[in-house]
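Pasting two entries for a bug report.
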Amino acid sequence: MYRFLKETHPDVFELHAYSLQDDPTVSPWRVQVMRDVDYFHNVVGLPDVAIAALVQNHGIHVLFNLNGYTKGARNELFALQPAPIQVQYMGFAGTMGADYIQYLVTDEISSTPEQFDCYSENLVHLPHSFFVNDHRQSQPWLCNEEWLLLPRNTIVPSALLPSKLPHNAVP
């Protein structure tokens, strides 16, 4: 997501990344984030109050929670409301049920209109899928038509079927 913001509006957004978890191996993704954002802050080990003060001092207007209720989450930090707008995105596709998260980035498959009343957040629906992915990072060879041995713009019809169909099913 940060690459989208940076590539489409480089002079509008100042991107800060706050690392809440240590990465002793320094993964390629961490290196990429460190290179692509304007400011990378390693806040591992700092108390939530100190991180909240740092976010406020940096003048952050929109703060994204990429963990939700997953391992390593620091939701207490978001409860301190360090930014005026706080958004839940990516790591947890459901509602936070918290008044300190104003928005949830989702799609109409993950969060159907019939479920709107179940969310404490305002929903921001992305078309097709809320899960932005840059497959060029992890699977760069998939961007190469020569690797696929297919002519450019070829459509390959396919179907994903369960491995065991009932005996009376017609595939």
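Entry 2 (this is the one that rendered wrong in the viewer):
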Amino acid sequence: MSGVIEPMKKKFLVAAIQFKLYEIKTFQEFENKVEDLLKKCSRENVELAVFPEYFSMLLVGLLPPVESDKEIFERIAGYNPQVIKLMSSLAVKYKLHIVAGSLPTLDPESKRLSNDSYLFSPTGFSTFQGKLNMTEYEKDSLDMVARDKLKIFQTSFGKLAIAICYDIEFP
């Protein structure tokens, strides 16, 4: 069995998480909401929990009034280090693989937005897949840029790729 870390499972349970948006006042409320959902997944023996695209938009309640949608996405991107740290720790705590929906990501050099989905493993490893095909709204209103490569991730239950929203429409 040279090169095989662990055998691939034939069956595993996936949770497609619905995430209701409502106004929150603190990041702790966001943390509690996410942890409650993942705790339930763990109790149900889920191995892969998948959050929806832009699930971090719940954090909009923490923002001061802004001028444009683009500014909202840029400010939400500022929470990414906290969101990534949270999801990583919960993946380890609840022994789950987590696809963290997607997060608007602001490139520090170009100042352009992308839409990235992070994958977290129960070992603490994390990586991301960028959205490859932007919607007209993302291109025109948010000035988002597409990523250019589909990545394939190896997990304990097999290979996994992440298609973000509009990416599913293109071969």
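Dev reply: Rendering is fixed now. As a check, the viewer should reflect this: The longest helix spans residues 27-43.
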